């Protein structure tokens, strides 16, 4: 009995320690990469579900905006039906998401929609500052979409919907900040990462970075006091490890993955 | 600004879409934010990648002119894009220049003392994501600890929202996309690892045409070669 009590106290102390050490300035929830590192998609789904619960949303989804400017599509990462895919996500991944992709590329303002015909379901949004209305993203629902951006210029959209969403002005910033944290974590989980078995060395990245800055192999060799052959070899290894067919593609991939700035 | 007490507007679509049309509006907005979070100074900066170095382009600020001169652009670029710069959703950490002998390795002791003397004892650096564009905002005060960190996080998102409504200012900040559609397409496919011949097939033009598009793109970016042109285009969010 005493043992159980002691362990309870221990846990409480440990929890208090955690919270005071790494307390979220917004209050109850710890955000920030240190405390909630999103390592896997299920982690991200859990984090997203917490956000949804806090604003009383029934459905949610996280999307990437397609990187190519040629197709304005939302690419689904996960939704509230994870691991399966909800009907709402299918709507958003289709033509319905095009406007929001274009919006996400040029603006960070959240957008809300209301299409469920329930009187008052949009009351939470009508009075919010900074948030404008948009065309319905999911037919027959009311919801809000937060544009999010990650380190290497990836764009995305966190979407929440439901008939009874509650969102105060002050809460808006906190929720959006948490969506950013979530997306930053998810953007680091790339399918490419799993296949990248061999780590790229610092020297190789150095060469790749110089290539991105317009240096030729000869110039790199001179700067880093290597032979031209070695510099070329580093770049070839970079390309191999990144599964790229050319050094130009290796530069592009490394920039997009955030390996170099 | 306080939406919870604001009256319900008949047409929210019209709400605030022109509120930051001029530079003066942005200045007034940032002054308002400074007062809200307890900061004395603001500076809105765009960082432009150059070969070997980063150049800071100051969009607006209320630092005194001499302070900007004395601190210098490289130091401002370091502050704006340094290790203490908080992305949206991360907890901002201030750079404390006052009294700290060697601050965090971001700036040298000498630079820190200079900033402290110039009235920037505490500097918060925030990354602002405005669509794909990226700006930086410095909030500083003459007395360490006077800026409210919770307020800073809110201010960060408000800045992102507000600048989404200031396309004219953003246009000055960025290298405007100088490429034609065809040039952008060519560059995109090259960045995907396609050879000139492959791009020619994809776009249904001759290889010579593809090469000329790419050469034009390289010239427009004043890049040294293809790799640098692609890096520049990715860094500025064009492809």
Strand order of the largest sheet of chain A: 2-1-6-5-3-4
The level 1 CATH classification of the largest domain in chain B is: Alpha Beta
Find the biggest chain interface. Answer: A-B, 60 and 59 residues
> How many separate domains of chain A?
2
What is the helix fraction of residues of chain B, given as a range? 40-55%
Structural class of chain B: alpha+beta
Average of per-residue pLDDT values of chain A = 81
| Overall radius of gyration of chain B | 21 Å
The strand line-up of the biggest sheet of chain B is 2-1-5-4-3
Determine the N-to-C terminus distance of chain A.
Answer: 57 Å
Question: Can you count the beta strands of chain A?
Answer: 6
| CATH architecture verdict of the largest domain in chain B | 2-Layer Sandwich
What count of helical segments of chain A does DSSP give?
11
Structural class of chain A: alpha+beta
Provide tags for this entry.
heterodimer; A: 261 residues; alpha+beta; Beta-Lactamase; 2 domains; 6-stranded mixed β-sheet; 6 strands; disordered N terminus; B: 239 residues; Arc Repressor Mutant, subunit A; 5-stranded antiparallel β-sheet; 15% strand; elongated
């Amino acid at each position: 009995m005493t043992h159980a009590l002691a362990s309870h106290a221990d846990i409480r102390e440990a929890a208090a320690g955690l919270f005071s050490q790494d307390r979220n300035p917004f209050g109850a929830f710890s955000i920030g990469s240190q405390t909630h590192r999103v390592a896997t998609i299920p982690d991200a789904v859990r984090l997203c579900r917490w956000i949804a619960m806090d604003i009383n949303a029934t459905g949610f989804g996280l999307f990437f905006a397609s990187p190519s400017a040629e197709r304005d599509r939302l690419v689904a990462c996960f939704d509230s039906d994870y691991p399966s895919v909800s009907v709402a996500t299918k709507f958003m991944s289709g033509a319905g998401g095009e406007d929001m992709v274009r919006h996400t590329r040029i603006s960070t303002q959240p957008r809300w929609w209301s299409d469920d015909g329930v009187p008052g379901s949009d009351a939470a949004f009508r009075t919010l500052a900074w948030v404008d209305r948009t065309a319905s993203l999911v037919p027959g629902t009311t919801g809000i979409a937060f544009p999010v951006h990650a380190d290497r210029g990836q764009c995305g959209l966190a979407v929440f919907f439901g008939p009874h969403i509650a969102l105060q002005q002050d809460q808006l910033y906190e929720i959006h900040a948490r969506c950013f944290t979530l997306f930053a974590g998810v953007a680091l989980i790339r399918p490419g990462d799993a296949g990248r078995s061999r780590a790229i060395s610092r020297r190789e990245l150095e060469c790749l970075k110089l290539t991105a800055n317009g240096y030729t192999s000869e110039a790199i060799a001179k700067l880093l006091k290597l032979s031209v052959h070695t510099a070329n070899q580093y770049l070839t290894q970079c390309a191999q490890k990144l599964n790229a067919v050319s050094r130009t593609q290796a530069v592009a991939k490394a920039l997009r993955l955030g390996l170099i700035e | 600004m306080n939406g919870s007490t604001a009256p319900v507007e008949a047409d929210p679509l019209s709400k605030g879409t022109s509120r930051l049309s001029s530079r003066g509006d942005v200045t007034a907005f940032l002054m308002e934010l400074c007062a809200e979070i307890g900061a004395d100074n603001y500076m809105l900066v765009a960082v432009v990648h150059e070969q070997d170095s980063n150049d800071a382009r100051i969009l607006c600020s209320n630092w005194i002119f001499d302070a900007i001169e004395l601190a210098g652009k490289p130091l401002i670029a370091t502050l704006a894009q340094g290790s203490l710069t908080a992305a949206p959703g991360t907890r901002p950490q201030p750079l404390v220049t006052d009294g700290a002998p060697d601050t965090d390795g971001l700036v040298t002791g000498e630079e820190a003392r200079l900033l402290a003397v110039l009235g920037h004892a505490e500097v918060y650096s925030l990354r602002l994501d405005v669509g794909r564009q990226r700006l930086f905002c410095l909030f500083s005060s003459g007395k360490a600890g006077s800026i409210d960190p919770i307020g800073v996080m809110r201010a960060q998102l408000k800045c992102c929202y507000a600048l989404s409504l200031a396309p004219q200012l953003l246009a000055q900040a960025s290298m405007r996309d100088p490429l034609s559609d065809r040039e952008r397409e060519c560059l995109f496919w090259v960045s995907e690892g396609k050879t000139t011949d492959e791009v020619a097939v994809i776009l249904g033009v001759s290889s010579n045409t593809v090469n000329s598009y790419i050469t034009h793109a390289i010239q427009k970016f004043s890049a040294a070669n293809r790799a640098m042109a692609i890096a520049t285009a990715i860094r500025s969010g064009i492809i």
